[in-house]
Amino acid sequence: GEETCAGFGGGSLYPQREGASCGCGSISRLKDGEIDSIAALQQAAAKYTGEANDLPGQGTTPDRVCPTTQMVLIPAGVFTMGTADPGIPQDGEGPPRRVHLNEFYMDAYEVSNAEFEIFVKATGHVTEAEKFGDSFVFEGLLSEKVKNDITQAVAAAPWWLPVKGANWKYPEGPDSNISNRMDHPVLHVSWNDAVAYCTWAEKRLPTEAEWEYACRGGLENRFFPWGNKLQPKGQHYTNIWQGEFPTQNTGEDGYTGTAPVTALPPNGYGLHNMVGNAWEWTADWWTVRHTTDETYSPKGPTSGTDRVKKGGSYMCHKSYCYRYRCAARSQNTPDSSASNLGFRCVADNLPG
């Protein structure tokens, strides 16, 4: 039978500090799969192990692809990568440098749960969150039952909790599901999982330069994909946190968690949710030191411990994680996963 895209269409506890971290970069695994609770150089707060969930390896590549597999052509050009006015200097947002890129194609949308499900059914892929038996989830999304079973948290960001059984199919743990979120971005995917999907789809992850160039949508030296004003004429262009982080999300943009990948207006290149909604993996190894020389199709360092992620997520708020800007950046180890981290693909030529 033909695969289809089922479900489509369809008073603070924590003192707030300007420029402080939401802890997104602190939720990494160590080399043996242990979850690192503060940072790669510090001891882990907790270790959970578990065998991979049994996933059927049945299925074939679908005859029909999901509507969100749409790719758009990003024209060749030169742009200013980074910023001279970093919002979070320690992240290596600067210095600004001129970067030349060839044309490429990019997914108009983040990879959705429906698309990832087709990949899993076709290949039998088991995600790293499933293999390790846990993944990080934002506390505000968890049921009381799940929270009561957790004894450890991330010391630097107590709203991040390691949840047994949390993975792409069960984003908030075993008592959750994605049946009503098939058109939302797939979450709890590691960098390695994202690479596996892109390879299967005859695509690849974008370099950080490609991602940032595409994010800017043809604009130069602007904060956001649409300009410098967060809400032009009062309209929401991104799914981020409104209210007081991390205790109250008013959902003024219409969402308190992820939004459908097709939601909210696109940028000048026709790309949706380049900032906010879900963090997106890139191909590059992480570094905070960049050359000021003009470069051509840079691919980042040749080695490292963490991979770059871009765009911020629905958890971002200016007081804690002002990273829903094109120049903003963060990092995680390649086997890390969380309830606000996904990806989209690029290709030099249209697949197929």
Record the SSE blueprint.
Blueprint: E1 28-29, E2 35-36, E3 71-74, E4 77-81, E5 97-101, E6 104-107, H1 113-123, H2 128-132, E7 134-138, H3 144-148, E8 160-164, H4 191-200, H5 208-216, E9 243-244, E10 248-249, E11 279-285, E12 295-296, E13 307-310, E14 330-332, E15 341-342, E16 346-347
Parallel strand pairs: 5-12, 11-15
Antiparallel strand pairs: 1-2, 3-6, 4-5, 6-16, 7-8, 9-10, 11-13, 13-14
Notes on the structure:
With 352 residues, the protein is α+β, with helices and mostly antiparallel strands. The protein has a domain at 71-115 and 184-347: paralog of FGE (formylglycine-generating enzyme). It is 11% helix and 16% strand. The chain contains 5 helices and 16 strands. It has helices at 113-123, 128-132, 144-148, 191-200, 208-216, and strands at 28-29, 35-36, 71-74, 77-81, 97-101, 104-107, 134-138, 160-164, 243-244, 248-249, 279-285, 295-296, 307-310, 330-332, 341-342, 346-347. Strand 9 and strand 10 form a beta hairpin. The longest helix has 11 residues, at 113-123. The radius of gyration is 19 Å and the shape is globular. The model is unreliable at 1-20 and 36-65 (pLDDT under 50).
